[in-house]
Amino acid sequence: MNPTALLLATFILSIVGLFAFIWSLRKGLFEAESSGARTIFSTGEIGHPEEPAADPSQRSALNEVSRTNLEADGTQTSQAELAAREVADRSSALPAFVLIGCAVVWLVVASFAGLLGSLKLHWPDLLTDYAWLSFGRLRTMHLNGVAYGWAPLGLLGIAIWMLPRLLRTQLLGGRLVVFGALLWNAALIAGMGGLAIGINAGMEWLEIPWQIGVLFAIGGMLVGLPMALMLTRRKVNHLYVSVWYMGAALFWFPTLYIVAKVPGVHFGVEQATMNWWFGHNVLGLFYTPLSLAAVYYFLPKVIGRPVRSYNLSLLGFWTLAFFYGQVGAHHLIGGPIPEWLITLSIVQSVMMIIPVLAFSVNQHMTLKGHFSALRHSPVLRFIFFGAVMYTLASVQGSFQALRTVNATTHFTHFTVAHAHLGMYGFVSMVIFGGVYFVMPRILNTAWPKPSLIAWHFWLVVAGFAVYMITLSIGGVLQGLVLLNPAREFMESVAVTMPWLQGRSIGGALMTLGHLVFALHVFMIIVRSGAFSLTERNTPATTAANPSLT
């Protein structure tokens, strides 16, 4: 078949399907009222913010912002609805606690591996007597600690907590979730140990051997199974868009991972193509949907206002599904793969601007009139920052896929900065915000030191800004040197040295912020008496603590 015809047919099919979906929407994209957007609110909750991480003064100011910009209808939430929500929260408490607790541990481990690896880029003689502390192994351990430890466990913990609320029914299969989490962590411990001693499958994002990785697929399916069990018993007439994103992500990940790790199937050029098909899709079809699901839930709940355009949120979901599947091949520009495949990837990458703009415009319209709430809501600061970084990372990625831009940025530190813009600026910041919202609900305990939340936010934002700016500048300078045939390769290394030092400063600030975060999580666990959850977490406990209702 003519490659050009195949490319054109694929593109036209995507566009026709997209516009068929848009045409099928019953209301205008910017319609103000939508019953679907109100699904996450109980009777009388609209106009009343929910912010578990705020101190009393912040909560009072947040209420004032909501009253000024959106009048409540005066209806009170019934005790029956509050009791049902309490039961739903209790049903997911232990599985969510296990997942989030493990995620925080892996965040600390991955942070130290990343920081030490960064230091070795400009201090190459640091700890050279230990093979497992060499840069190659540390970098791989950092990647896998984030990609299979912190990010998925944190997102899955938040998703498991959200599901009973979104479906208004108790969590089913909680023991399966805990068992799946244990399998996942066992696989990660074994995989990280293997990477430390030099056992490596040799493909980025897929370094852990398939004999161990099969546990990820099984564990992921066990964690996702409760959603399938609960859908038949849901007590809502409409599935909120967050459920769409979570359901898609929980289906896509096992599919992606199993296809990528099947032994004895992928070789040579096909293996490289598959590698980046997985590497990009795990970001766009697993981490991204789960993160967007969290944004679409927490942002409206914190300000007490439904998402402005529910149809626009559905447009974002379907265009993500339409366009993301083939974007990974742009990492292989210049490689020995068909040109039509690379061109298809570039086209799909540029088309990703559609779901990104749909999300960004929707969030802006939802927050319009409520931006002052950012001063009073710790959760909203993290969520909003993550949402903005999603926009920047996605638009940057679309332009970075273009051959003219890729010629300068490919194989440079700029690519590393871009990866952190998405995986840290977007995904990790959303997880931070979600954890600050969820943990008080899981443990029925307020955060012990709200001031530490502010410290955490400003440390990671400052560190992230230093990291991104220095590494992006260094990467562009590196690329320009590499493109100049009159300059030696070592000049491209030397030009990055001051910028790599800036990267380590930024990484140190981020790591310090992570330690503050981990300490605060430990403090709330100790304060709550988490090992006696069944005794403490009762409706009476919540009623005695008004800040948690």
Automatic annotation (TrEMBL):
A GO CC annotation recorded here is:
membrane
Which Pfam families does the entry link to? COX1
The UniProt keyword set, sorted, is:
Electron transport, Membrane, Respiratory chain, Transmembrane, Transmembrane helix, Transport
**Gene3D superfamilies, per database record:** Cytochrome c oxidase-like, subunit I domain
Using the record's annotation, list all stretches that form the Cytochrome oxidase subunit I profile domain.
Answer: 115-549
Q: Mind telling me which residue stretches traverse the membrane in this protein?
A: 6-25, 94-116, 145-164, 176-202, 208-231, 243-260, 280-299, 311-334, 340-361, 382-402, 422-443, 455-483, 503-526
- GO MF, any single term: cytochrome-c oxidase activity
UniProt xrefs under InterPro entries = Cyt_c_oxase-like_su1_dom, Cyt_c_oxase-like_su1_sf, Cyt_C_Oxase_1
| GO terms, biological process | electron transport coupled proton transport; oxidative phosphorylation; respiratory electron transport chain
| Protein name per the record | Putative cbb3-type cytochrome c oxidase subunit 1
Source organism (scientific name): Advenella mimigardefordensis (strain DSM 17166 / LMG 22922 / DPN7)
